[in-house]
Amino acid sequence: MAIKKQYLKSKPVCKVTFSVPAKEAKNVAVVGSFNEWNTEATELKKLKNGTFKGTVDLASESSYEFRYVVDGTYVNDEQADSYAWNDFAGAENGILEL
Q1: How far is Cα 48 from Cα 78, in angstroms, rounded to an integer?
Q2: pTM of structure
Q3: Could you tell me how far CA 40 lies from the centroid of its own chain?
Q4: Which listed residue, of 23, 29, 31, 67, carries a Cα 20 to 30 Å from 80's Cα?
């Protein structure tokens, strides 16, 4: 899994690209505090090489909790900036620092 951050000079926005290698998966989405944990709000597109990829514009100088949903299973990104326990999820969520 990979996270690429591209900060815009013209606005306080960071384009965050999420990449998830999941050849056998049918659906992959990224959910988090930036999209109300909606599993349908930010679905990633499957590329020919089996990687799911998508880009989200997020406000700079903020932090967000997030996870991936791979065919209904919640998964953390090992490249997250940090992790935080979430009582509602009953698990740790990845933290994205922008």
Answers
A1: 23
A2: 0.93
A3: 13
A4: 23
Residue type, 47: L
**One-character DSSP codes across 25-89:** -S-EEEEETTTTT-TTTSBPEEPTTSEEEEEEEEESS-EEEEEEEETTEEE--TT-SEEEEETTT
| Residues across the chain | 98
- Please give the pLDDT value at position 47: 98
Helix or strand run (H / E) with residue 11: none
> Which candidate, 48, 57, 35, places its Cα nearest to that of 68?
35
Q: Contact, 84 vs 97, CB < 8 A?
A: no
Q: pLDDT per residue over 36-82, tens digit each?
A: 999 999 999 999 999 999 999 999 999 999 999 999 999 999 999 99
